[in-house]
Amino acid sequence: MRIGADSGRERTPKFISKPFLKNPMRMRSIGLAFLLVFLILLIGCSKFPSEREESTTSFFTSPQYSFSFSYPAGWQEVIVDLPNKWAIKDESQDTILFTVNKAPFDNLALLGNLQAVRDLYEMENQSGLSEEKMDAISKIVKLKEYSSAQFYTYAIDFSDKNVQSIVSGTVCNGQEITIVLVAHTTASIEKTAVYESLLDSFDCTA
What stretch of H or E contains 85? Predict the structure, then answer.
């Protein structure tokens, strides 16, 4: 049984469509579920720059978790009373979501596989999965090098909702930082470029 992720330098991960699961009703994504919560909490809470405001790059820094990244100024940072969860979104409500949890170990390949198991099968570990399903998980989870960090990454296509999601994660000072893009299918190429640029700017400081 393969429990590691295939490494690769593909520019974007291959989207896995909903029929990937034999029981699609059990399929979920941390990004999609988290997005629904945020949309309920955040409608009307964000102010976007006017057209006359100069478009520049914005920067986010987390003193608590010691990491930073940059993102387009047209995306609005969203902060609510969730200390380890937050997001940025644009005017079309396409969203990049962030969660921070203590990493049980530093092995990114295994962390990526476990996160994919949770997202795709609603299981906390792979002990109940068949070898065939674990092998399929190992094939979709990739490891990618960016300027300052390595991430696991995989993608899910919710074709029935016209939504695509990319899930990536890294370890920073013992914390697993999970970053999820949730974008409308029609804008996925443009938003994926924004997402990739954000991951490339991610910096973890000691």
Answer: strand 85-89
Which residues on adjacent β-strands are paired with residue 175?
102, 172
Give the three-state DSSP class for 146: coil
Cβ(177)–Cβ(98) below 8 Å: yes
Q: Which CATH number fits domain 13-41+61-199: 3.40.630.30, 3.10.20.30, 1.20.1300.10, 3.40.1000.10?
A: 3.40.1000.10
Confidence check: pLDDT of 50 > 50 = no
Which residues are paired to 60 by β-bridges? 69
Burial class of residue 168 in the structure, from the number of CB atoms within 10 Å of its CB (0-12 exposed, 13-18 middle, 19+ buried): buried
Q: How far is CA 18 from CA 79, 87, 110, 130, 158, in A?
A: 31, 25, 23, 19, 6
**Can you tell me whether residue 200 is helix, strand or coil?**
helix
What pTM was estimated for this model as a whole?
0.77
